[in-house]
Design goal:
This protein is mainly α. The chain contains 8 helices and no strands.
């Protein structure tokens, strides 16, 4: 298919992206599990995530310059990479300030951006089945809906579930809750 040919056109960036993304998927859940695992694993998680974000931007660059969607594809991949790097920066800054609950919230938000390609790629046949929608339009529709759904899921996870978990009652040095 045309999509497979476009992805395989940039094998080095694609390989690096998939390798780093696999590490992110493996490290994410175990890093977010508790304060001790967050403190121990956040550095590895942030490094793997940053590598995946930059490699994903390179894949987007290849798709945007040679592929079916052109500049729009490039802007989607670079935008997702930039949002991911911003979330990682927020997690790193919060961890440096010893605000582990906030660091976890930023990391989970960044993890939601990492998951966007999954529904994005899996929904392509659905979007393409709509009358009059070509591959480029299906790609962009899947990107928008995948991002929106996962970003809202991360927000729900942060607000409704993690704030009630083991880090919710963590006390800082001055006896205040860690925010």
């Amino acid at each position: 298919s045309q999509l497979a040919r476009e992805f395989l056109a940039e094998p080095v960036a694609l390989s690096l992206w998939l390798l780093a993304l696999g590490m992110v998927m493996r490290l994410g859940p175990q890093t977010f599990a508790s304060e001790s695992s967050l403190r121990a694993g956040l550095g590895r998680y942030l490094a793997a995530s940053a590598a995946a974000a930059v490699a994903g931007m390179a894949v987007g660059n290849a798709l945007g310059t040679r592929a079916f969607a052109g500049y729009t594809m490039l802007s989607y991949w670079w935008g997702a990479g930039a949002l991911w790097l911003i979330a990682l920066g927020g997690a790193w800054i919060a961890a440096r300030r010893d605000h582990w609950r906030v660091a976890r919230q930023w990391a989970v938000t960044g993890h939601s951006v990492a998951l966007v390609p999954l529904p994005w790629l899996l929904s392509l046949p659905l979007w393409q089945s709509f009358a009059g929608m070509d591959l480029a339009q299906a790609w962009m529709s899947g990107a928008i809906m995948g991002f929106a759904a996962l970003f809202l899921a991360a927000h729900f996870l942060n607000v409704e579930m993690l704030d009630r978990g083991p880090l919710a009652g963590t006390q800082g040095v001055a006896g205040r809750g860690v925010d």
